[in-house]
Model the fold of this input.
Amino acid sequence: MDDVVKIQVADGTAYVKNLLYVDKKSNYYLILANHTTQVGKLFWKTLGLSSGNIRLSKEEQIADALKSSKGNVNPFAVANDTNNLVKNIIIDEELTKFQRLALHPIENTTTIEISLDDLQNKFLKAINRQCKVIQLTDSAAKQELEQEKDQQNLQTLAITVKKSDFSEWYQQVIRKAELIEYYDVSGCYILRPWAYFIWEQIQRLLDDLIRTEDVENTYFPMFLSAKHLNTEKDHVEGFKAEVAWVTKYGQSDLNEPLAIRPTSETIMYPAFAKWVQSHRDLPLKVNQWTNIVRWEFKFPTPFIRTREFLWQEGHTAHSTREEAVKQVYTILDFYEQVYGELLAVPVIKGIKTESEKFAGGDFTTTVETIIPQNGRGLQGATSHHLGQNFSKMFEINFEDDKRQKAFAWQTSWGFTTRSIGAMIMFHGDDNGLVLPPRIAKYQIIIIPIIHKDLDEKQLNERCEQIRQILIKQKLRVHFDNRDNYSPGWKFNKWEQKGVPIRLEIGPGEFKNNEVRVVQRFDNKKYQIKIEELNQLNQILDNIHYAMLEKARNELNQRIKQADDWKEFMTQLNQRNTILTKWCQREECEQQVKKQSGIESKEKDSEIGGQIQLTGSAKTLCMPLKQDEIKEGEKCFHCGQQAKRYVLWGRSY
Ligand code: 87F
Done:
């Protein structure tokens, strides 16, 4: 069917098939293609046409347009097209690679050779026609169309707001970095692999740390009966509204509704009572990694405040108070370590005030952080000393070495997926997520820069070699060798996903046995030799500490001191937290909370955004590290004798 002339031609000569197409409006298109070219359908799109409307011409149509016949279609016949029916003369780009084209001018029994240049600039010019040189194969057209789509994607892909538009920015970052997918139950979110990997890294480190304290992992059921839940009425009272219940199975009502664990004290401690008989059964230390459900009514924010979240909860029982207290602080140090060493988030260790502590316990220690962008305090994790409150209620008692009955001293502590939210808020920038290296699923992304002077296969082999070298160094590395995305698109994508280091390999790097290193967090760019790739571990470590240092400076800038109410409110309204001397009286604390709410310029300012926050300041913690307060030094608010420094702030 193709008008191919089966004759021998010299090297450098292409033999050409001539194809005349026609659309529904009787516009004709003449295609000159190399005989080996698979003429596809997609290239019509690049001419703004649809292949569905286009057919090969029939005998009468060929006669009509070119005054020629089947088997005799050729560009010279266009001279006969006096009515300008041929709209386009399309030359296969392949033909530009040959010196001469073999064509049959009158009939397919004779052949002439002509250069493409002569055809274009002598013949076609003479009859006042032009032609278009395009790629005719589907794969070529596909690439071109993909690249067009790429460009469009680049637009829609980019984060459309700056970090200063914080709520909107946060929502965009978590979606575009592929951390979160939305779900149709309010307050519940899908953690995508990019986010879940971070949680796995947290689990790994924290699990290793608590094992050094002989804590054992367990699993307790997620349901609890109303009777169970109410064993310890006081501590539950304030949380009651948040407990979710299962009341049905199939179409029937359950005899007794079951609560879904919001925390597991009342699930675990009846078992503790059975397991603890003598002082030899102590200490008892268990932990579980689970989900929990708290039906919050405040506005949900992915990671930060969700109705279901993941955590670990640790529970220990000891024979002495000192031992339990020591446990509380050891765990608090572990929490600080996870934040600092893994998430590169600085925290302040402290003790909660009486009104902010866990009501069921004796005292609550906490790691608090401050989100630099808005100066909001964020409780990072808590470690409680429960005293003997629960052991008395659940009868967790033992015979001490003098055969006296004694109640156990307990601790409980929890670390949640909220920590991931803090990390995103600290490190993300206008271009998206910035991951500290130790939690990044890919620490390094390799991107080849395809170039016409560079053999693609060789380039890919080089990239693969580099990947192998890095894998041997236990680095988490990915080679993005997709050929349907441009390097620019890839840069963008991996930048948004926060990959700490990008390695680019283009013609220059290839030739010089180098790679170009681009650091995500400070955009630093430099070349390193392939033999120096073993430096990357150190470079990633340096990045981690540089990120932590930067974050710590930003946090410190959000802590101001105030000696009186006026200074306090000024600092609060400038989005700072405030460290003050304080009398440590609950009444004074409540007054500050109330009054700061009334006088607050920020009140409800972020309602309508995604993150709803109030304007009043509360106590975040009394930092463990603080100066001593001397006799005569006064509380900043009420003027009574101060006892401790306390950190105040608006909070999440
Ligand atoms: C919500 C509903 C019911 C917090 C709740 O911090 C009960 C509770 O007891 C509740 N929200 N809490 C306090 C949890 C205390 C404690 N539990 C072990 C922790 C760490 C892990």
